[in-house]
Amino acid sequence: MVFFRKAALIVIVLLWGALQVSAEMRNEISYLRGDYNGKFFDRHNRTFRIGSAFHYAHAKQHDILLITSLVEHVLADSAFDAESVHVIHGPPRTEPAMEYYGPYTARIAWRLYRAIDWSHMHHEQTYDILSDNRIPWSAKKEWTDRAVRYYLDKNDVPRSPAPLEVTMRRAGVMMKPYFTMFRNLYPHSNKFFYVAHWWHPAVYEAMMRGGNGSGQDRLVLTVDEVLYDQVLRNRPRRMLLSREVMPRYSRMSPESANIFDNLHMLHGIAYDILAYGEWTHEQKRKELYRVIEAMGYQPGDEKLARKFRIPRPEADPGAYEEWMRGSDGEMNRIMMEMMEEMLPLMTPGGSRAVHSAVMDQVRMKLAPGIQKGERPGSLANALKQVMPEMKMKPHDMDPGVEPVETIRVMLEAWKNKNGNMPDIEPLEMKDEPV
Amino acid sequence: MFVILKRILTGPILTALLLACFLPQNSGAADHTNLEEGIPLQVVDAYATPYLNREIQASWKYERTRESEEKLVLEPRLEYGFARNWQGSISVPVIAGNADQTGSGNVGIETLYNFNAETLFLPALALSGRADLPTGRESAGVDTTLTFIATKMILPSSRFNRTHFNLSWMHNRGANDDERVDRYRALVGFDIRVGRDTVLVTDLFRELTIKKGERSTMFELGFRTQLTPFTLIGFGASAGLGDQSPRFRITLGFQHSF
User: Fold this and answer.
1) Where are the alpha helices (DSSP H) in A186-324?
2) Which residue of B has its CA nearest to A98?
3) I need a surface site. Which of A329, B13, B74, B172 has the fewest CB within 10 A?
4) Single residue among A274, A296, A326 that ends a domain in this structure
5) Tens digits of per-residue pLDDT, A210-238?
6) Coil, strand, or helix at residue A274?
7) Cβ neighbourhood burial of A278 (10 Å; 0-12, 13-18, 19+)
8) Which residues of chain B does A56 touch, with a Cβ-Cβ cutoff of 8 Å?
């Protein structure tokens, strides 16, 4: 028995040592406690459940992409879109973690799910704070800032509070061989998530316009009705950004606005990587982890949080306007700008005709599905066809490799153009909307 | 039958009423996929509760022993994620009925450490250690339990499912003459998502009982359902296999984050 105990102890120590060196840790962290916890669930239960339905779809999409062969993408896309629409009409009672509906991906890239679940926790916190009518309107920002601080400090996977202009440049994904695969090959599912990325900020903005009282209930209900009656039937053709749909909330908490944009962008990039058929699981994990790190919080990012513009300060979350539906908007503007910055590196002295052909392909690639005249494959593949002389560093497209020079050029360009941009104005929260 | 149902349900109903009066309203996420011992089955998974999570847990067991005696066990537990990938808990089982009540009121202190997240090839592994202090009925010495836990998705599927293996070594300090000093339990368990908010759980375990010369084998089946983001319930039924095992057991469990 004594021998058995000693042997067991030695095995335990060796196991612990081996695993500390080689294995990824689970590292789950609980949510921030506050009296407001659960208020979104209590007060706006149907809306809460719609959010759960979107997260169901987000979770399951990972496994579908990882497990489905590319040749089956058309059927897989239609089938899963139909399933997602069905679920949104009969949504789950509680919010699922990503692993619950995407268990296979959890075993390939656990860190991805940690980043997503942690950011979904921030969605819950911020919805709860706005929903809790015991928190005076003038105190909403203070409580939201507390939640932001917890989100940024407690975990090692938070999304950055810097705007997408900065984090997309840091990620350097546009010329990777997977970029735009998901939106081109799974257009129905892609647009379903564009609906989600309209809905999330629309709910925040409805709460901001409604105040603490019954106005909030009415406006949140309106958003849900618009979702079912209009947005699901005629879906946006781009990812709408926080600043477009929730301008007031973005002024009140620009950190949260950018965190959510960065989360929503991470969803899209992760789906691109998982959909890409030429890499092994290990290669996909490498690239996913590189992107998670690149778009993650860096100390000091708070200073960049207000460096964006609000295109439509009076946007109405209860109205599904024409400008919300098309491909042209802030997200695509950012990416077109990045392409302009990258082009001199790829085609020094390139002609106007080539430039025009390139930007046309970029515009088409950024839209869901395949457009007339669009070259097949990822954005990089399409550009190689219209620009055969394109120069790329040999390994910049490899999994896990950061295209250092490209990122440097883009960040410098952004800093030169926008580094001194005035911060967006904070929103005065003294007076509650009536 | 009515008497049995009354005995099974009285404890849970009274406790639920009590908790409803005193539970803090600020609460968060209990997790129906994080299997806890006795809620409602024996099997545990290799993952600790999230860091900084706090939960009140309770289980009510009704057991018909091999000798047709009745054993009711109410076990409240407080659990806390005190460090990343660690959890600690404190529990006090209260035993009633006409079966042996030895150990009723013994305070149990337990900790679990999860070594790693599961990968495609590597299971999630954990170790838990428990000390039962002799604070209760007819108890002597601090009894200890060490459990090795492994969790792995084996069925290749996009439906959440996991197989678990628990191997426990229980040391009975201050054993009586007719009691084992060391005993073991080996368990294989499985859970699978069956609904949006429910997992089905099952396990089979064999153990050396505390009485020398006896062994027990039980098969269990149950479910865990998330009622709200903060609260879940579990229900399980256990059947004894062989003539040295209890006849059957019914368990109701409850978890609430606060």
Assistant:
1) 187-210, 214-226, 242-245, 247-252, 254-275, 281-294
2) B160
3) B13
4) A326
5) 999 999 999 999 999 999 999 999 999 99
6) helix
7) exposed
8) 196
d(CA A131, CA B109): 39
User: Is A199 in the same domain as A345?
Assistant: no
> Does the residue A255 lie in any domain?
yes
Same domain, A140 and A232: yes
**Are residues A261 and A117 located together in one domain of the fold?**
yes
Query: Do A135 and A247 fall within a single domain?
Result: yes
Domain boundaries, chain B: 2-257
Of A296, A326, A356, the residue at which a domain comes to its end is A326
Same-domain status, A317 and A372: no
Q: Cβ(B81)–Cβ(A30) under 8 Å?
A: yes
Residues of B in contact with A34 (CB under 8 A): 26
A20, A93, A100 ranked by CB distance to B193: nearest: A100
Domain that holds residue A108: 41-326
In this structure, the number of other CB atoms found within 10 A of the CB of residue B255 comes to 26
B2-257: what CATH class?
mainly beta
Chain B closest CA to A254's CA: distance in Å? 25
A155 lies in the same domain as A70 = yes
Strand partners of residue B113: B86, B127
What digits encode the pLDDT tens for the residues A164-203?
Answer: 999 999 999 999 999 999 999 999 999 999 999 999 999 9
pLDDT > 50? residue B65:
yes
Tens of pLDDT, residues A328-349: 999 999 999 999 999 999 887 7
* Residue contact B48–A92, C-beta within 8 A: no
Strand bridging mode B54-64 / B86-91:
unpaired
Domain count, chain A: 2
pLDDT band for position B15 (50/70/90)?
Answer: low
Provide the pLDDT for residue A258: 98
**Nearest CA distance, A75 vs chain B (angstrom):** 17
Q: Does A99 touch chain B (CB under 8 A)?
A: yes
| Average pLDDT value over all residues in chain A | 94
Q: Inspect the interface and report whether the beta carbons of A25 and B84 lie closer than 8 Å.
A: yes
Chain centroid offset of residue B163 CA: 16
Distance from CA of A345 to the nearest CA of B (A): 40
Residues 104-123 of A with CB under 8 A from B: 104, 106-108, 110
Task: Decide if A26 and B122 are in contact by the 8 Å CB cutoff.
Answer: no
| pTM above threshold 0.90 | yes
Does A265 lie in the same domain as A339? no
Query: How far is A341 from chain B, CA to nearest CA, in Å?
Result: 39
B257 contacts in A (CB within 8 Å)? 30
